[in-house]
Amino acid sequence: MTDTLTALWAELEQIAFPSLTALFADSDRLARTVSTLDLADGAIRFDWSKTHLCAEAQAVLTRIAEHQNFADKRRQLFAGEPINTTEGRAAEHTAERGSGSPASVVEAEALHERTRALVEAIHDGLFGEVRSLIHIGIGGSALGPALAIDALTRDSARVAVHVVSNIDGCALEAAFRRCDPATTMIALASKTFTTTETLVNAASALDWLRAGGVDDVYGRVIALTADPDRAVAWGVDETRVLPFAQSVGGRYSLWSSIGFPIALALGYDGFAQMLDGGAVIDRHFLETPLADNAVVRAAFADLIYAQALRCQTRAVFAYDERLALLPSYLQQLEMESNGKRVTAQGAPLTRPSAPVTWGGVGTDAQHAVFQLLHQGTHLIPVDFIAVKVPGHDLDPAHHQILLSNCFAQGAALMAGQASDDGARAYPGNRPSATILIDDLTPAALGALIAFHEQRTFVSAVLLGINPFDQFGVELGKAIAKKIESGGGAGFDASTEALLALAGIG
């Protein structure tokens, strides 16, 4: 880290951040910290007013962004240049949404049309009666589809999709119990088509089809991969392989053919609307000055808490049951991207990296963890995410109470409440941000996900790390494979004892 950059971070740390209530003495506070972005079918409001983002901090972070060549890094991302330096390739998930190098955008469009054709063929009955899809993947190959399907198709799926990621056979058996082999297809999602968990689950799924009387089991399989040749060698017919680019990372891949199960459940037009919603964020992020950029503003606030105030966690609470899987999705996006200990140049990272992302669903979480948020000794920035239009037809009181609780929590965290009884005193000055969505449409969900992708990228650039590799997951996997192959000797005494007790090795 250069002396200049070290000095800039020190300057951020030395800011005497005003209290949240003091910041609201500025009559222009909302205008400076709230952005509303219009979609084709509604809008999203990004309200960062209840954070400690002040003019002084924004000025310092803007200088850090300039020092880290943020504008050029952003350009490299959208131009399809090799911004993933450790692996020597681009990160082209934005091309899937129409913003990238012209060649990559054209390729993505062609692959999307291939996905559309297969989805529509299934819907039109060309594969026989298909009522269910078991989607087998792990990590980004499962989390993105699971989130979108749960959020958008709870009562309206064209085909019922069951996402299986865990190697624990209980997960696969649960999907089997909900499906009929005669009317079920299998999707195998693996970028390399070598993922152990996915291929073991796939073999068991084929056995289940055979036991259910299906003669041509491979005829029921769709492969979603960046290595089509390996999928064909495994046994999938080449007409049922949906490729995607090697430059699309796993946790950013739902925009590619990994989104096939979303399109199958929702209808391809709905999936296309997700892409359009993501593209709205991309254009805003690329074209809007830093001072007014909703994505940059969110990342700046994140950096204030993780870097200047040394908060070790960030909480996300979705006040909408349909977004129950969002905190888990964001855990992988943020912690796998920015949970690094070296810079993009391989030097030791001398600052905190990503905070721990965690969260839950309101109002359930209020009765579980909010005690600590309001009165605990940890300062934890919170994101609240809510939707104006309910996802049900019950008494409107349900939704009114839900939203009232969401907005009340943010107000209470900020204002606090004094009391002579310490057990009943609330310190206040605790930050939160609120994302309010008009309606949870495919476009809105696409915009919400893309917003968090780009927010994560901004933090990475200012910290000088590469958010597009994930070598930290490899060591444990390598050791597990060594054990599976019979080479599991020479571990510590605890591990040796556990292996012996489990009858492994």
Furnish the topology, listing elements before pairings.
Elements: H1 3-13, H2 20-23, H3 29-33, E1 34-39, E2 42-47, H4 55-67, H5 70-79, H6 102-123, E3 132-136, H7 140-152, E4 160-164, H8 169-177, E5 184-189, H9 196-211, E6 221-225, H10 228-234, E7 241-243, H11 260-266, H12 268-287, H13 294-308, E8 313-319, H14 326-338, E9 356-361, H15 370-375, E10 382-387, H16 397-415, E11 432-437, H17 442-463, H18 474-484, H19 493-502
Parallel strand pairs: 3-4, 3-5, 5-6, 6-7, 8-9, 8-10, 10-11
Antiparallel strand pairs: 1-2, 2-11
Continuous helix count = 19
| Unreliable sequence segments | none
Rg, nearest Å: 24 Å
> Between the first and last Cα atoms, what is the distance in angstroms?
45 Å
Taking all residues together, what is the mean pLDDT?
96
Which strand-content bin applies to the residues?
5-15%
Shape: globular
Overall number of domains: 3
SSE-based structural type = alpha/beta
- What sequence of helices (H) and strands (E) makes up the elements? HHHEEHHHEHEHEHEHEHHHEHEHEHEHHH
Describe the structure.
- By secondary structure, the protein is an alpha/beta fold.
- The chain folds into three domains: 3-90 and 274-469, Rossmann fold, CATH 3.40.50; 101-266, Rossmann fold; 472-502, no CATH class.
- It contains 19 helices and eleven strands.
- The chain has helices at residues 3-13, 20-23, 29-33, 55-67, 70-79, 102-123, 140-152, 169-177, 196-211, 228-234, 260-266, 268-287, 294-308, 326-338, 370-375, 397-415, 442-463, 474-484, 493-502, and strands spanning 34-39, 42-47, 132-136, 160-164, 184-189, 221-225, 241-243, 313-319, 356-361, 382-387, 432-437.
- The protein has a six-stranded mixed sheet with strand order 1-2-11-10-8-9, with helices on both faces. A five-stranded parallel sheet has the order 4-3-5-6-7, with helices on both faces.
- Helix 7 (140-152) runs antiparallel to helix 14 (326-338).
